[in-house]
Amino acid sequence: MITFIIRRLIGTIFLLIVVSMITFAIFFLIPRLAGQNTYQLAAQYVGRNPTRQAVLQVEQQLGLADPLYLQYGRFLKGIVFGAHYRSGPQVTYCPPPCFGYSFRSQLPVWPQMMSDVPVTLSLAIGASVLWLIGGVSIGVLSALRRGTLFDRFSMGVALAGVSLPIFFTGLIALELFSYKWPIFPNVQFVPFTQNPLEWARNLILPWCVLAFLYAALYARLTRAGMLETMSEDYIRTARAKGLRERKVIVKHGLRAALTPIVTIFGMDIGLLLGGAIITEVTFSLHGLGFFTVQAVNNQDLPEILGVTMLAAFFIVVANLVVDILYAVLDPRVRY
Amino acid sequence: MRRRRTFGLAALGAVGALALAACSSGGSGSASSTSSPGAVAYNAGLTSIVNQSTKKGGTLTFDWRSAPDSFDPGNTYYAADWDFARLYSTALMTYKNCPGACGKELIPALATAPGVVSDKGLTWTYHIKSGLKFQDGTPVTSQDVKYAVERTFDRGVLPNGPSYFANLLGGNAASYPGPYKDRAKNLMGLTAIDTPDATTVVFHLKAPFSDFDYVATIPQTAPVPPNKDTGASYQTHIDSTGPYEFQSYQVNKGAVLVPNPQWSAAQNPTVSQLASKIVVNMNMNPNDVDNRLLAGDAQVDFAGTGVQAAARAKILSNPSLKANADDPLTGFGWFFYIDSQVPPFTNVACRQAIEYAANHLTLQNAYGGPVAGGAIGSTVMPPTIAGYKKFDLYEATTKTQGDPAKAKQLLATCGQPNGFSTGIAYRSDRPTETQGAQALQQALSAVGIKTTLHGYPTATYFTNFAGVPKYMSSHNIGIAFGGWGPDWPDGYGFLDELTNGNTIVPAGNTNIGMLNDPVVNNLFSKAAGITDETQRNAIWGQIDEQVMKDAVIVPIVYAKALMYRPTSLSNAYFSQGYTLYNYGVMGVTGG
Fold it and tell me: Could you give the 3-state DSSP secondary structure of residue A14?
């Protein structure tokens, strides 16, 4: 198991390097191939109607005129060893992992991202608890009561949940529960360490909206998995042995049905930790998703590179955890 | 609700008279204002002070759908930032505190009086008020003003602000690298600014520039103490000279400001210190901002660009909400350029044909209609700009659906009786421009002009596409959508970058019409040397008319925006200085 984890972690480093190379190429190499020169690139990061000298100063400050391999090498070096930046009267040291300085805010990227992590983490964890409990329970009950009114109704709601985009359900939720009936007024992120109750109160709406989408998906997946599993021979054997129905369902049925759920949960949680973009934008929560949107809108390459690599890291780690969990869920799996 | 509505309607008539009284009074520009209080009514904030109050206390909340380019007064270029910056920084000059047009008048803020011009317009001298202090109690000196301007020369560190000082100042301004690379004694190496004593600052220009007092309103002239400057990170610990200082600031997330104990109204009466706390929430969902305004959770939409469609519908259909709204001309103009270097637009008659062929009504609708979009324009400058002159050469406001017959006639004159083909550039991530381009395409096809639409991203629109003359010519793109908001509300601020021949550059060009008309250029040169405001304003009108004769710009609308001012907001009025609500004097009625 240890060897497996070390092997995967080494693979993660290579994967992150490849991701950074691709992102770097998209934002630097492709525009150059399309004819954009470094002066035009630098002009994007200066105020309106700049002088030529101003653009050249920015070009020099950001190192845009250097060869691409040098710029990329500098970026990687910063992550491992840190970097020094001229930020005014003094040279500022950016400690590792230094993802560079934002082209727009002129501040180091890493601390900005780290300040957004608690928001995304709070959102993703809270919502995932809700959707796992809600989605899996409804899926199991629907499968066990196949064809009943409950099954039809819950699957109908699930279909709606999958179909309705978050920017719609989110706005409706805000309109109804924040403004019309102000049960959750003035939604703003409050850190858990500052006030746990306020933290939860402010996140209930985003959690519910995000969980509604995923719970619907998980309910349908669980239902399908349970239906398939419950018709297996070994379930019949378990019943024939005289096991209690609850034990048959939970230990033999659900456990087997959970394997694909765990796989997709790993992917989903990894993606969400990289930023629940639409939910964060809808509820004005300044997490990594919001950070990503801003970075892209501002064409802020260091920020884009940073958040892309962080998101990739989360996905890889989440997958690693899923692989380890397989061994727990499925006795046939050994590393 | 009914009572408020009746009261509001009755008050409407009185508002105009109040406004006249407000704007005709001379005024010191003090925060207590020279205007009479206005009743709560639709558009009352355009001409009067709504909820006028000197009540102290409470939290004033600004919600912002975006974030500042920087709070550093030397590194910002948004009108909303400049308006807000007066709360924590003090530029040499500022705009008078009164609603409507008189808000365009200049008054001294840090300075004791407007600049004194000498040396045939080449020297501008300002004396600064004595007794003004930074938040740590250190007195402000003229050297702090000089240093503040000097640091803006290092665009590698402070890239966002305007370049007026680099362009206008003489001495070594053209090659000065900024104080961070300055090897001169005390970092005061910019020879174009003298500080003969602690309260005098002298600017030496390379050529006369009569609008220099406007330049002195830019926060870049707000003092910065050299020993407190930390360059790029100064934005996170600004040394305030205004009524508020930063208690906290998380970049791109939000800020909290509290009263600065070193500030007093006696020293700087152009701003006030009413709220006991100012909260700025950044990067909010636009619809959420509107809902929070309507619910009273926030008092001000920082961006000041108007509410979204959903809130607009709510406000306009509900009289009590409508009474708390204003629909001002924002000072912004939307238009499209006709590139005079792209054939067949090299012929003025072909350009004039486009002026007649455009369907102004469909274009206005594309931009949001008369309330949210704006009023149909017939001039380059909107009416809020000093020097505006009313005229309508191409009957845009009378024949709002265009005049295809006249357009065809002009096409025949320019040798294109069967029309021609050209391209239309627009910013594809802006729905208004996308719809506008489609509306124009339809109108032009009616007179035989075939067009191809070219959508580009906003971020690179000027640097890579529409603002690159070579690109326009090589891709046969003769028309490009654009808009303009001036850095200050007079003809120079609006027209220079759009129409002066000397502003044409190979990339990042904003004179996309490629106008290099000697008549226009000479009028700009003439105005630069005229210190009399009335004479200068007359020249802006002449330039506007000449540009319209040259037909390189087709005005679409004088932009408007429906803005909401919650009842909890005091001293709310729209100023034509920054063409926003005056953030410097607001308070809250509660608390």
Answer: helix
| Dihedral pair phi/psi, residue B329, rounded to 5° | -75, 130
Residues of chain B contacting residue A41, judged by C-beta atoms under 8 Å apart: 463
CB B235 within 8 A of CB B71: yes
Using a 10 angstrom Cβ sphere, with 0-12 exposed, 13-18 middle and 19 or more buried, the burial of residue B264 is middle
User: What pTM was computed for the model?
Assistant: 0.86
Q: Which residues have a Cβ under 8 Å from the Cβ of B314 and sit 6 or more positions away?
A: B294, B321
Q: What percent of chain B is predicted at pLDDT more than 90? A: 81
B467-510 pLDDT, tens digit per residue, is 999 999 999 999 999 999 999 999 999 999 999 999 898 888 89
A109-329 in CATH: which number?
1.10.3720.10
Q: Is A180 on the interface with B (CB under 8 A)?
A: no
Q: Which of residues B328 and B78 earns the better pLDDT score? A: B328
All structural domains of chain A with their residue ranges: 2-94, 109-329
Are residues B288 and A297, on separate chains, in Cβ contact within 8 Å? no
Tokens 């399908």 belong to which residue? A224
Q: Which of residues 11-40 of A touch B (CB under 8 A)?
A: 36, 39-40
- Give me the residue from A179, A284, A297 closest to B295, CB to CB: A179
For residue B105, what is the DSSP state?
S
Mark the ranges of chain A whose per-residue pLDDT is less than 70.
331-335
Choose among B159, B229, B235: nearest Cβ to A89. Answer: B229
Is B156's CB within 8 Å of A50's CB?
no
* Average pLDDT score over chain B: 91
pLDDT at A333: 66
From chain A, the residues in CB contact with B168 under 8 A are: none
Of A233, B138, B86, the residue nearest B95 (C-alpha)? B86
- ipTM, two decimals, is 0.82
Three-state DSSP class for residue B587: strand
Residue B155: which of A57, A88, A297 has the nearest Cβ? A57
Question: For residues A75-98, b (16+ Cβ closer than 10 Å) or e, as one string?
Answer: beebbeeebebbbbbeebebeebb
| A window 256-315, beta carbon within 8 A of B | 281-284, 286, 290, 294, 297-299
Q: Which residue of B has its CA nearest to A36?
A: B464
Could B70 and A182 be called an inter-chain contact, meaning their C-beta atoms sit closer than 8 Å?
A: no
* Euclidean distance between CA atoms A53 and A48, whole angstroms: 14
Residues from chain B that touch A287, judged by Cβ atoms under 8 A, are none
Across chain A, mean pLDDT equals: 88
Taking 80 as the threshold, does the pLDDT of residue B86 lie above it? yes
Q: How far apart are CA B281 and CA A277, in angstroms?
A: 19
What does the alpha-carbon distance between residue A234 and residue A317 come to, in Å, rounded to a whole number? 34
CB contacts < 8 A (A, B): 143
Q: Show Cβ contacts of residue B226 under 8 Å, excluding neighbours closer than 6 positions.
A: B143, B144, B147, B179, B186, B187
CA distance B530 to B550: 25
